[in-house]
## 1
Amino acid sequence: MSNIITSLFKATTLSRRTALAALLASTFAVTVSSLPDTSFAQEAKSIKVGIISGEDEDVWRVVTAEAAKQNLTIETVVFNDYTQPNEALDRGEIDANAFQHLPYLENQIKTHGYKIVPVGYTGVWPIGLYSKKFTEIAALPEGAVIGVPNDPSNEGRALRVLQNEGLIKLKDGTGILATIADIVENPKKIEIKELDAGVVGRAIEDLDGAVVNTDWALKSGLTPENRIAQEPVNDNPYRNFIAVKEGNEKEAWVKTLVSAYQNETVKAEFDRVYKGTGISAY
């Protein structure tokens, strides 16, 4: 720096103003170059994320490792049913959750007034009709007993699977929250049993068939070989996502959390865990 100053002030062809400008520019350049690059550094942050117990715990161990690389510490809080994660998020006991699709959240908001918003998709698990007694829809007898999930969004979803297969017909204009009260045609006189989403798959031995969410199907020991019908995958409105409280969606840690999930490393673990029954949806 001293050589620069000496040469500047010895120069007779430069005005004092030009010399000073050059000096300031040189000083700024030296100062900036000596500072660490913090343009991509992120403030350390610790958060709690609610998930459902089971296979997703393996996936989130990888997500946690990916987040740690970006200075975000994740503590997963494991729940055993679908009602608790939104309650915990609404109360501020956790910072985010990852377990639900939009029809379910919309019903929860309508019922409980939650201010919760989705911030990034995770996967989709096409719901299917399973049976251990019959290998095709046509083999289902008159009066067959079929179980469906009893929560509003998944019951409507299950009934649409039955409608797609010609087993029932729902009232025209029925939305995604259809119930058995909306059935207007039932040519085989099927008896539909409404059961908890976590129970319906485990009750398969006592049923002729059951419409089961894929994650619960895995937990219940059901396999693709037991599946005799499935909802379409394309344009599926039931993609799961990460959700946070309204007002937090633009926080820097939310962007980091989503990117920690939506990458090839996590996708590889997702595919290993779910064996093709779940599909990455981002």
Note: The longest helix spans residues 16-33.
## 2
Amino acid sequence: MAEGVYKTTRKDGSYSYRVSIYHDKKHVSLGSFSDEETASLAYREAVCLYNDPSINILNFRQQLKALSPDKAVTILNHRDHKVYIKTPIYLENGFFTYYLEGVGHLKFDNDDLFYYSSHRILNHNGHLYVNDYGSQYGILGRYGIKNYAVAGRDYTFANGDPHDLRYANIIVINKYHGVRQILQQDLIRHEAKIHLVGDYLIGRYETDAQAAVAYNKAVDAAIDHGFQKNFIQNYVLEYTPKEYADIYTKIKLPASYLNYLTGIKKAPSD
């Protein structure tokens, strides 16, 4: 059997060839392969990555035929920084990159290192997410970006690089449910709308926090009138409870919206 290769039997009785390498007091699993030749090649590629300093995080992909790119990144980080991380993370100066096959190198702040060291990023048709406690969570959600948000409208990147996911590079334009930033007579305003059967305009406000409160009040009115829908209300951090209550009281919902709700409530008895 080739060095680093171990023959195992699958549940169906067929053989597989597991590969591992021992480096810097660390036993590193390289994966499982269907034949010994490919398994042996993966082992030799891992040896080359550990020992050839000319291979780096930018050019490693062209060196691979058997070893997975994910594992190659793990090996290069282990080699260069003496830290083994099981996900494809490479430590940089003040941040880290996460290599995602088919996407490229994603940049993150070191504050996220612990999380992505234990959570593997997955890609489905451009939607990047992690599995956590049996559920899928979009990685943009960590920045307060909703899963239905649209790049360029609801959020943007300060340096124009959508692969740079460091916090300073993420600009959230529309962070609240039912609130959208608009330009009205050359002034930035925040429009609150609620979707029932159609979209109902609640109002336009100077701040997104005011618009978020207005949306919440519109939701409360809909619920009070018996409208059955799983609304998501906004948690507005900008205000103290008293400030929130004062703004909530001052906001007047449009008469057309209230008349619509009244009509919905009366409809069953008509």
Note: The chain has six helices and 14 strands.
## 3
Amino acid sequence: MRIKNSKSEKLIFGPAVAVDVLIFDVNNGKLNALLIRISKGPYKNKWALPGGLVRTDETLDEAAKRVLWEKAGIRGIYLEQLYSFGEVKRDVRGRIISISYFALVDSAKFQPRTTEYYSDIRWKEAKKLPPMAFDHGKIIAFGIERLRNKIEYTNIAYALLPKEFTLTEMQKIYEIILGKKLDKRNFRKKLKMLNILEPEKKMRHGLKSRPAELYRFRKRSLVFTK
């Protein structure tokens, strides 16, 4: 980007702007992030979030959706801005400011793919990351904290649960994201206060314990409760 200084008439070159997209999933009892492995350049063999530079003819949101599709083969999901990362030496290739985005998805509904610049694409446990490029480990850590806060006042967990589910299944999702065990009574009291669920008025049978009541989300799109 070039900016003309009206006093000196010199051209000032500003930093480039990029977007990086953090996609979370819960599977096999773990919170995972979708990562791609770089196959060449200064970050060869390190892992990174899907990302890229913003074009001059697109918005930040458009750029995030484009790079997610081009570099991970995923589209049609709700993305939310996470944070801006602008440390001077975050990228050895030049001065680049990153606007990060994040989302929570069910990985069973997607088949990620990537480009020739990347040698692999996989879901990796968010708390046990492989060697990371740039400051993407920091972005993931920030995203985990945002997700943990967000489940306290939204229905964002809908992305990980089927149409019908038990409260025990929902509690397990919360425990994986929060990284701790929850008291059953307090958890259900909290859900009642959030008012994001409604009973299906039917039971799930065939479990080892007694039949469990089934629930569904009032809305399967993001809702803020406060």
Note: The longest strand covers residues 16-27.
## 4
Amino acid sequence: MKVANQQTGRLMTLALFALLVIAAPQTALAHCDTLNGPVVETARTALDKGDVTPLLKWVRADEEKGIQAAFQKTLEMRALGAEAKEFADMYFFETLVRIHRAGEGAPYTGLKPGAAIDPAVALADQALEDGSVDKLVKVLTNAMVNGIRERFAHAYENQKHADDSVSTGREFVESYVVFTHYVEGLHGLIKGNAAHHGEAVAATQAEHAH
């Protein structure tokens, strides 16, 4: 029975974490303001081919005309020479990413170098390229499981001596707060993003119904 409970607990943990990953699209897009992120990479290809269409998915419908106009102006400036091309491209990247971030409801603080990309997000991009999410799931699941276990072990050991003295009691309280806040943070993120995801789905369904 104990083994069965442990297995069930592990499965529940994995299921909760899967929901966290699935229901958090804004996290996956956090690297869209980097020079080698998907938005800028798409823009480079679009400018080289002279086709703005692939870029439009990164902005809201009401921003399409503005992006199309900026794209055309960039193509015209590119024809003036290498120096003008570099300046025009960067200005267009800045414009596109700023509008994309605004559509996400996220602040724009300028383009960042590729090194700013979170390793987990890089793995997410690689998963899409490879057509397999197994490595990403393994890395993130292990990180979460280890985080919970480490904080639990610390709090559990301190709990054994919590009443020995005031100082050991405070050590326990500190580790207890760290442990419970970590778990609460994970759970809150799951609930919050799941609710946000549900609202987005409901809004989309309502729009199609009309």
Note: Residues 2-30, 194-210 have pLDDT under 50 and may be disordered.
